[in-house]
């Protein structure tokens, strides 16, 4: 896939004011996409198949500094 994590945030309609792309990893036919969901104040990891359908979603609380780091405060 020729896309960045930021591109995928837009493509999956997750590009809200408080969302931030973290990384996109190619796992040979599957992708791991990590982003910060500011509303929930959690890091989210989506496992996607080759057609970019969500296979699994994991939401986890990060450190207290995560929100400030990802939102730019």
Characterise the protein shown here.
- By secondary structure, this protein is an alpha+beta fold.
- The chain has one domain: Nuclear Transport Factor 2, Chain: A (Roll).
- The protein is 19% helix and 40% strand.
- The chain has a four-stranded antiparallel sheet with strand order 1-2-3-4.
- Strand 3 (42-48) and strand 4 form a beta hairpin.
- The longest helix has 7 residues, at 5-11.
Q: How do the strands line up in the largest sheet? A: 1-2-3-4
Termini separation (Å)?
Answer: 32 Å
Query: What is the SS-derived class?
Result: alpha+beta
The amount of helix comes to 10-25%
Overall outline: globular
Largest sheet properties: 4 strands, antiparallel
Q: What is the count of β-strands?
A: 4
From the 3D coordinates, which CATH architecture would you assign? Roll
Q: What is this structure, in a nutshell?
A:
By secondary structure, this protein is an alpha+beta fold.
Record keyword descriptors for this entry.
single chain; Nuclear Transport Factor 2, Chain: A; 73 residues; alpha+beta; four-stranded antiparallel β-sheet; globular; 4 strands
Secondary structure layout:
Layout: H1 5-11, E1 19-26, E2 31-37, E3 42-48, E4 54-60, H2 65-71
Antiparallel strand pairs: 1-2, 2-3, 3-4
């Amino acid at each position: 896939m020729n896309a960045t994590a930021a591109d995928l945030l837009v493509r999956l309609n997750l590009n809200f004011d408080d969302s931030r792309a973290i990384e996109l990893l190619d796992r040979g036919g599957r992708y791991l996409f990590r982003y910060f969901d500011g509303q929930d104040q959690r890091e989210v990891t989506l496992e996607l198949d080759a057609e970019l359908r969500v296979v699994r979603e994991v939401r986890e609380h990060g450190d207290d500094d995560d929100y400030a780091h990802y939102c730019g405060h």
